[in-house]
Design brief:
This protein is α/β, with parallel strands linked by helices. Helix content is about 35%, strand content about 25%. Strands 8-9-10-7-11-12-13-14 form an eight-stranded mixed β-sheet, covered by helices on one side.
């Protein structure tokens, strides 16, 4: 898998800390703005990337690049994913895939037309602990309550309160707590239980953006609450409660650093962690190499279905709460 990266933010820093460990992945090129040229040079030197571009069009026309890893701010995901598809490149796009459901549906249709493959980079789905949780679900009996709280006081929130609006809190850039943190909770729940019957979102909104909020998903036989906050913090916890036992995780849904399991009569919780101490993104890129190199269409389509349901939920939730992005208009 020969990769071209577009973006030079923190997620790219993260990616490059482990990329060399992923067998079968070669970093060909990276592109960002002219103002970020010094960063690009450093990335190339430290990570062994062959070349860099300050014009993204040069990345899309690089014949050696097979796959574009889209790692730019949220509101640019659609535009750059579309450009990559039109250039005949496969796409790995950071979460959230797009600003709304309509954009993602357009990309899915275009990818099929151009015969290219497309995957959302959500580490949750590929962490070995996710497979372990799926196996344990059957032992819980009838699921009754699911709760997921990913609350993390943002280092940018103080500046936001003073009027300095950075991308994470900018509605013009598809920011907010739902898109940044709660989207991981949604992905986790959808991967396990599919599409809910009903969606609602009660959000704390300042200057048109949700700084925190409570998302409720009605699955009929059980109820789910997903909390995401950037304006306050709390212990991170995800719990699946059945009438015969529970599963509990105390790391964010995108990290999944292990989980515990107990039945109603158990005095102690069983502890599981299959992540091997790897970087939270390592397992997903190992899987991407396999999926793309071996053209596993059914599995890629299954992951796209999760992305589509997730995007449907966040779009409906935002609009119900009155949070409108330029892409919605």
């Amino acid at each position: 898998m020969r990769v071209g990266i577009i973006g030079a933010g923190m997620i790219v820093y993260d990616f490059l800390t482990f990329a060399h460990e992923v067998a079968g992945m070669e970093l060909i090129a990276i592109s960002a703005t002219p103002e970020e040229e010094d960063k690009l040079k450093q990335f190339c030197e430290k990570a062994g990337i062959k070349r860099y571009y300050t014009n993204s069009d040069d990345l899309f026309t690089d014949d050696e690049v097979e796959v574009i890893y889209v790692a730019v701010p949220n509101h640019l995901h659609f535009m750059f994913s579309k450009k990559a598809i039109e250039a005949g490149k496969h796409v790995i796009c950071e979460k959230p895939f797009t600003s709304n459901l309509r954009e993602l549906e357009e990309l899915v249709a275009l990818a099929k037309e151009k015969d290219v493959l497309m995957i959302e980079a959500v580490s949750t789905h590929y962490n070995p602990n996710m497979a372990g949780i799926k196996e344990k679900l059957a032992e819980l009996g009838q699921v009754k309550i699911v709760s997921a709280n990913y609350s993390q006081y943002s280092s940018r929130y103080n500046a936001f309160k003073e009027g300095d609006v950075m991308p994470a809190f900018n509605p013009e850039m598809s920011g907010g707590a739902l898109m940044d943190l709660n989207i991981y909770n949604i992905n986790f729940v959808v991967a396990l239980f599919g599409e809910p019957l009903a969606v609602d979102y009660q959000a704390n909104i300042t200057r048109g953006i949700d700084t925190s909020g409570i998302l409720t998903l009605d699955y009929g036989s059980f109820k789910c609450v997903c909390i995401g906050a950037k304006d306050c913090k709390a212990p991170i916890s995800t719990t699946i409660q059945g009438d015969e036992g529970f599963i509990r995780m105390t790391t964010p849904a995108n990290v999944m650093g292990g989980y515990t399991f107990a039945l109603n009569g158990d005095k102690e919780e069983e502890v599981y962690d299959f992540s091997e101490g790897k970087h939270r993104m390592y397992h997903e890129f190992v899987r991407f190499v396999d999926l793309l190199d071996n053209v596993k269409l059914d599995e890629i389509d299954d992951m796209l279905d999760i992305s589509l349901i997730t995007m449907k939920i966040q779009t409906e939730a935002r609009l119900k709460a009155g949070i409108v992005f330029p892409a919605d208009e």
